[in-house]
UniProtKB/TrEMBL annotation, chains A, B:
Name of this chain's protein: xyloglucan 6-xylosyltransferase
Cell membrane among keywords: no
Catalytic reaction list: Transfers an alpha-D-xylosyl residue from UDP-D-xylose to a glucose residue in xyloglucan, forming an alpha-(1->6)-D-xylosyl-D-glucose linkage
Family matches, as InterPro entries: Glyco_trans_34 (IPR008630), Nucleotide-diphossugar_trans (IPR029044)
Keywords, ordered alphabetically: Glycoprotein, Glycosyltransferase, Golgi apparatus, Membrane, Signal-anchor, Transferase, Transmembrane, Transmembrane helix
Length: 456, 456
């Protein structure tokens, strides 16, 4: 029996070795490309585009490799409880156990959500044609709620959110909590308001498409908001001092991290990133949302749209339509219509792919300082593919969670520093004092750029 | 074997019945008191004080009854893993399982945190004597960062927080997430800034005492803040429209929900609540923090202080010193020193005990409206004793979590309503449309009091 177990285990290890061997070979090839990319990288900014290609290639690999294990492999009892079932959980349940699924069961679970006639074209809402004029009129009537909070500083609403259900992964909600704390800190320092969404406004537009009905609703309900900043829940601020160069975008309505060539020339599906973007509150924005939306409705429409996008875009894997691919497609195929109002920003990390940033934090601390926003000190570190809330992500869960802790602490240190504290290390939850109190608190006040509040 | 299992089970059931019988008798007695209290309740405000006594009596009962089961009874394997151990987890661990404790193990876990000489009196920091003057000077030098953001409207910083560790209860972090979203919503509507703390600034002052070093640090670092509003993570806003009557407190430095007689005459440990309070940024506040702090340091000091407080206060159970009991004690024994600057508020629920509120939400919706803040529509519903983050709380976990969902939805509906949505019921995560879009978005804009933005 023991011998049989040992040989079964060896067979599994051998098969895993083979699979990893193929991956290793591919990694070697990509390493060469990385080196090539590094040698040719621009002075400061965000790394050459091929590095992002590598990123997404890895992501593609992982999507098609063995599914990553969840954080904790469910015990046999839990696996039985987690099997989809129509009714309440019974069977192996111990009388002494509270069934968490029963407690958290929502009375609407499983009820058919949407009844729209799917042969009719999808719409985000009644067509609005003159929002610019309506908004101007409203602003004139409400001069005390201006759309600019200071000269050249627009009123910005940062919008993010997550599912109203607890995460399938037990620690997922803890990372969502740290992520919103991180956003609260940045926004407090920069005079930005926060909206955390936990409501699915349109069941047809679930998943990544849920942001469209939400964004439209918020724009129309808040005419005082000049710019809406959408930010994914898996993106964190890692430069607490960097102020977005608002003036740079005064003639643009949509700002995303990306590269013109990758979008307009290559139609590369990762030519831009919709995990962190700025959208102006205007008619143009309503129009582009209306243009994107038809690819979103769950089911056949989204699947077919996904096939179109895979066909039309460079390097896109096979999966249902997502809003980022749709954006690349719309911009690339309707450049004349939208292009002049879209700013693809790459001089700082409005979105920064975590894979190429997180191992460099210590080096950044050594060499640089907050306020740069770019590859020296990234504004945003975005954990694409990690999916801490889900059972499975695209990357090893241990790496994701450890790196998310480091990114959080990297940003948090910039807050704690103003109070004379710092994390003991980037890996540590614990904090230590880095500045003794003097009894003269005014001397100790630092603003968020680290500048003392009063000249000494 | 089966017969033996059945008889063991019956024996357990019988013993449980006996225990519950004692509880049932006590509940009957208390029900009579409740009725008496209800018949004598004031017109509007917050219920008669004896109801809170009942609350705390129940809390006391539960503290001494069978410990409440956690949300999910750990499996045998998990129980072994969760046993405190000095090193890494081994033994029964399956190779295929990721050990969540290993992944989340903080390199500082178990390291002795504080080395202060405990024979020396504890201090929150160097003694500051002239903070009022220092603060005035700072405000004069920074006229663009005024301590009043509008006439009669002070700059308020709402401070809350939770542990940097994931909750022991798997769904605890989800409730912390909903709680901070709730606070973000209220504060956005009321021009209040938020600080979410996840750092333990002083390891000796862990637990409920952690707020003291934090509050002191924030007051001294933010002279622009006029009032600091501490709010527990288990308290939620349930009246999104109610504006705190700031002017009422212009001559006071500390505002808590409570009753003068219960504090100054009875020295009742629940005569006030420190789960939600306002503290002015001034020398007086630094002084009262300094006065409370000596009861806080973990270990012998806190235990001995706890015994003193149990002896001196009415109805206080036996446990280590907590900040609320310390506050009652200090105020009651030093009334001449502090009393004139303390406002014990009970005309609205700056803190509202959840037990007497949550079953009435539907009735409130029927009869009343947001903006009242009192027992008709409570400003704050505070889930004292529920402890969703911990393994065990003072109340049945199912009741706590379901009621926290209801309270969250009750508050969230007041936000969603402005966008034309509502939860399907107070128990449901799902939302439904309650107002169709017309194509004229300005007509649909409601401010947070529900008043249309433009006259129709």
């Amino acid at each position: 029996m023991l011998n049989r177990l040992i040989s079964q285990r060896r067979a599994r290890q051998f098969r895993r070795l083979l699979r990893n061997g193929k991956l290793t070979l591919l990694c070697l090839v990509l390493t060469v490309v990385v080196l090539r990319g590094n040698l040719g990288a621009g002075r400061f900014g965000t790394p050459e585009k091929d590095l992002d290609e590598i990123r997404e290639t890895f992501s593609y690999i992982r999507k098609h490799a063995e599914p990553r294990r969840a954080l904790v492999e469910p015990s046999k009892g839990q696996r039985q409880r987690n099997k989809p079932s129509g009714g309440t959980e019974n069977g192996s349940k111990n009388d002494a156990e509270f069934d968490v699924k029963k407690i958290l069961k929502d009375e609407d679970d499983g009820v058919e959500e949407f009844k729209r006639d799917s042969t009719q074209p999808y719409s985000l809402g009644p067509k609005i044609e003159n929002w610019d004029q309506m908004r101007d009129e409203w602003l004139k009537k409400h001069p005390n709620v201006a759309n600019f909070i200071a000269e050249k500083k627009p009123r910005v609403l940062l919008v993010t959110g997550s599912s109203p259900k607890p995460c399938e992964n037990p620690v997922g909600d803890h990372y969502l909590l740290k992520s919103i704390k991180n956003k609260i800190d940045y926004c407090r320092l920069h005079g930005i308001e926060v909206f955390y969404n936990m409501a699915l406004l349109d069941a047809e537009m679930a998943g990544f498409w849920a942001k469209l009905p939400l964004i439209r609703k918020l724009l129309l309900s808040h005419p005082e908001v000049e710019l809406l900043w959408w930010m994914d829940s898996d993106a964190m601020f890692t430069d607490m001092a960097f102020e977005v160069p608002w003036e740079r975008y005064k003639d643009h309505n949509l700002v995303m991290h990306g590269w013109n060539e990758m979008v307009y020339d290559q139609k590369n599906w990762i030519g831009l990133n919709t995990g962190s973007f700025l959208l102006r509150n205007c008619q143009w924005s309503l129009d582009i949302l209306d243009t994107l939306a038809p690819m979103g409705p769950k089911g056949k429409v989204r699947e077919e749209a996904g096939k179109l996008l895979t066909r039309e875009l460079k390097d896109r894997p096979v999966f249902e339509a997502d809003d980022q691919s749709a954006m690349v497609y719309i911009l690339a195929t309707q450049k004349d219509k939208w292009g002049d109002k879209v700013y693809l920003e790459n001089t700082y990390y409005l979105h920064g792919y975590w894979g190429i940033l997180v191992d460099k934090y210590e080096e950044m601390i050594q060499k640089y300082h907050p306020g740069l926003g770019d590859d020296r000190w990234p504004l945003v570190t975005h954990f694409v593919g990690c999916k801490p809330c889900a059972k499975f992500g695209d990357y090893p869960v241990e790496r994701c969670l450890k790196q998310m802790d480091r990114a959080f602490n990297f940003g948090d240190d910039q807050i704690l520093r103003t109070y004379g504290f710092s994390h003991k290390s980037l890996a540590s939850r614990g904090v230590k004092r880095i500045r003794n109190e003097t009894g003269n608190p005014l001397e100790e006040i630092r603003d968020h750029t680290g500048v003392p509040s009063l000249p000494s």
